Amino acid sequence: MTDFSRRQILAAGIATMGTLAMPGVLRAQTGPIKLGTLTPLTGAGGAYGPRMVTVVKAVADEINHAGGVLGRELVIISEDDQTNPEAGLRAARKLIDVDQVSAIMGTWASSVTTAVAPVCWQSGVFLATVSGADSITLLPHQGFLIRTQPNTTLQGRKFGEFALSVGARHVAFVTPQTPFTDSQYESMSKAIAAAGGTTSKLVYDDKKTTLRTEVDQVLRGKPDAIVMGGYTTDTAVLVRDLYRADYKGSLLGFGYAVNKQLVDALPPDVSEGIYTISPSAAEGSTGFKRVTELLGGQSPDTYSCQIYDHINLIVMAMAAGKGTTGTVIKDYIRSVAQDGGERAESALQGLKIISAGRKVDYNGASGPCDFNEVGDITDAKFRYEQVKGGAIKLLKIA
Amino acid sequence: MLQAVLQAIVNGIVSGTLLAIPALGFSAMFAVLRFPNFAIGALATIGAYAAWVVNVQWGWSIPLSLAVAFVVAGAVGVGVEFAALERLGSGGALVKAIGSLAMAMVLENVVRFIFGNDVQAYNLPLARDMVFGPVRIGPEDLTNLAFAVAIMAAIWAFMSFSTLGRCMRAVADNADLARLKGVNPRLIALVTVAVGCGLAGIGGTLIGLSTSIDPLVGGRILLSVFAAAVLGGLGSIAGAVAGAFVIGIVEELTVLAISPAYRLAVGFVVILIVLTFRPSGLLGSKAS
């Protein structure tokens, strides 16, 4: 008779459990590849999130139809970040812990991305975002993050230069507190100061029902241009109160705040003349046309174009790295995005090139999609528009 | 500087008027039902959207739209009380308060589901402000002020002179004694909810008239309304109005003195100071 020691029984038990667990592990390697979208379906960004999800799902369907990635089906799990960091973090935890996605795409508000990013890099999940705050790519993300939106320093400089070009000498920046308020103001001020102009800043509470006193405060400085840094809802309040106060100078806003919604919600004489600046999608590119088709012919906004690029890049990185984890995506995303190779404008084209053993250089719907070492895009164009007669008219793309 | 302070006070009165009506409804409901009904933010949103539908899509006038806001928000409020909150009664005030918060989220999402997230505005031209000496005020703010004062007067008359109003005050004072006198406290509770939620609906519409509406329009003012009601003395109707004006003016003066970002903090510091010296609020009776 053989006596088993407790240690032997324990070892045998672990070995048995390990064997039992193996089919599960194998199954995980052959089952569907899960990717998450974390976009604002509600809250201040609620106008953009649903369209972003539509685009991602349509691209995934297309790829699945053509045989999937590495022979496996793509499954998209969509969560709502409610344009709110707490809700975004909860949803990200669900995507990572419960659904076990390899990558999360589309976080929109900078506050949400800032909250979600650490959970992603700690869990080895790749994050592709459309948020602009400079601080995001400065996080210690170990390469697990890229963004397709130009950072706010660049955007701030463009606002400053444009304000000067419309003849402004004293520019007021009126904004709620956001993660990019300071960096944007600083780079805008630098551009204006270089041309001998001056700037001032007022931070308001975006939950107030009236901004009259704030407007009075700003107008006491007699600015000849005001840059509005808020989102649609509070910008609507600000524009109305500026009109009431009989402000006659130039108004500049972000394209995501001064949008069709805002213009429709204001009487035409109130919104007349507002300038908007926004990162421009690569209009005329194959990717841009494809996103237009996927959205049923609607002209796509830059975020729909950017998330189209996210899924294409992630899928191609997985194919190039022959793996589906966040780490593989991190290691291979630049190899399919830049540094020359055969040009691809969709994942379907890219997958064919990769399977033929050649290198891909992706050019997307939002632009060339080349990233520096911290994950910022290296080249971006901006779209300058103006509200005229209750509609937003394009001035230039530069 | 004096001009800036004067202007801030005028602006504070304007925003206080917008807070006063929902604060009044909130306080009236607290007086009778003895729990803070946090669904009023969402009900303000529902009222605002009901008014928007009849004003923009059906072309009804603003006074008629305000009446619709009152009726729809009141009806939805009664529905919520009847279907959900009343059943939580045995759990006490805290459970009902939490239930009302949950219902607020449900209602807000229903609005979002039906109307979407877009910012909407009423069919109302925007006029430049009128200047009176050192201060300026918008014509629609004056109209809103007039509406709000008329509504407050009507509520005061209703509470003072109508049998239903007197019954409401009786139940608020002592529910058992009122029952002995033949008053049905449940019916009175539902009437109070209808009136209170209806007032929240009007408040939401008035805010929408001076700004714009979206599914969060009511949620954004919830804290300020709560602050106004607590400051005035929970359960005191005149107190709610006084509290709303104090909160409105303090919030505007904050902008001049320190950063507007501290608006809510300053509001709550004022509450802290007032409640330290008058624990039952500005005009509240001694807590029983």
Overview of the molecule:
The complex is a heterodimer of chains A (398) and B (288). With 398 residues, chain A is an alpha/beta fold. Chain A folds into three domains: 1-25; 29-150 and 283-362, Rossmann fold, CATH 3.40.50; 152-281 and 381-397, 3-Layer(aba) Sandwich (Rossmann fold). In chain A, 46% of the residues lie in helices and 19% in strands. Chain A contains 15 helices and 14 strands. Chain A has a seven-stranded mixed sheet, with helices on both faces. A five-stranded parallel sheet of chain A has the order 2-1-3-4-5, with helices on both faces. In chain A, helix 2 (49-65) packs parallel to helix 13, helix 3 packs parallel to helix 4 and helix 13 packs parallel to helix 15 (347-355). Chain A is elongated and about 80 Å long. With 288 residues, chain B is mainly alpha-helical. Chain B has one domain: ABC transporter involved in vitamin B12 uptake, BtuC (Orthogonal Bundle), CATH 1.10.3470. Chain B is 75% helix and 2% strand. Chain B has helices spanning 2-33, 40-57, 62-85, 93-115, 139-161, 163-173, 175-180, 185-210, 217-232, 237-257, 263-277; strands spanning 130-132, 135-137. In chain B, strand 1 and strand 2 (135-137) form a beta hairpin. The mean pLDDT of chain B is 89. Chain A binds chain B through residues 42-43, 46-47, 177, 202-205, 207-210, 212-214, 216-217, 220, 232-233, 236-237, 240, 243-246, 261-262, 264-267, 269-270, and chain B through 4, 7-8, 11-12, 14-15, 18, 109, 112, 116-121, 125-129, 136, 138, 207, 210-212, 214-216, 220-221, 251-252, 255-256, 259-261, 263-264.
